[in-house]
TrEMBL record:
This is Acetoacetate decarboxylase. It comes from the Bacteria. InterPro entries: ADC_dom_sf. It comes from Rhodococcus pyridinivorans.
């Protein structure tokens, strides 16, 4: 998609996974728009869009911030994200995403607090969120699976495991861009904020199918 186009190839080389990191984040989800499936993977999918803003306080490439979204989830025993849109404010992180996990990372500018008002801006797009946490802080432990399509019909699959604390939140979203406005719904959605957490993203492996 246009938001992920990048002809640059000379990004600083990043270390291989695993990538441990301390994180704060806002995540939200909504029913996919009618146009979402054309930007997602082929095959069996779930009509749910999942997106997040992440503040990496430390990592193997230093601190950085990130926005990513999956138009529809891959259907599996544990649903997986196929990510056509992801942006960061770290050049080594761009290399790491593209080299280690086949994530189409691009550079963007970020501003604000990920647990409150936050924004990401690229050359042709923007995403802004306003998170309103509610209720008590609770423990969280689990993981997110990424399954990126590669030529030949296979996917590269990796898991990011997280342990920390979270709160329920309502997340108000605005998105503009050549495709983002078609599948990342504006408005207020159910979500959570990760108030503190420790995450580790492991190496990917090629699988012939989900």
């Amino acid at each position: 998609m246009p938001e992920s186009e990048d002809e640059r190839t000379d990004y600083p080389v990043s270390p291989p996974p695993p990538w441990p990191a301390s994180v704060r984040a806002a995540l939200w989800w909504h029913r996919s728009t009618p146009d979402a499936s054309q930007y997602g993977p082929t095959g069996a999918t779930l009509p749910i869009t999942l997106a997040m803003m992440v503040d990496y306080l430390d990592s193997p490439v230093g601190p950085y911030r990130e926005v990513l979204a999956s138009p529809v989830l891959r259907r599996d025993l544990i649903p997986a994200m196929a990510v056509p849109f992801i942006a960061v404010d770290s050049e080594p992180s761009v290399h790491g995403g593209r080299e280690h996990w086949k994530l189409p990372k691009v550079l963007a500018k970020f501003d604000g607090d990920v647990l409150g008002d936050f924004s990401a801006t690229g050359a042709r797009w923007s995403v802004a969120t306003s998170a309103a946490p509610k209720g008590p802080e609770l423990p969280i432990a689990g993981g997110l699976t990424f399954a990126q399509p590669i030529p030949g019909g296979a996917v590269e699959r990796a898991t990011a495991r997280l342990r920390g604390k979270f709160r329920y939140a309502r997340v108000t979203v605005a998105a503009e861009g050549p495709t983002l406005s078609r599948w990342l719904r504006p408005g207020t959605h159910h979500g959570i904020v990760i108030t503190s957490g420790r995450m580790s993203t492991g190496a990917s492996r090629v699988v012939s199918r989900m």
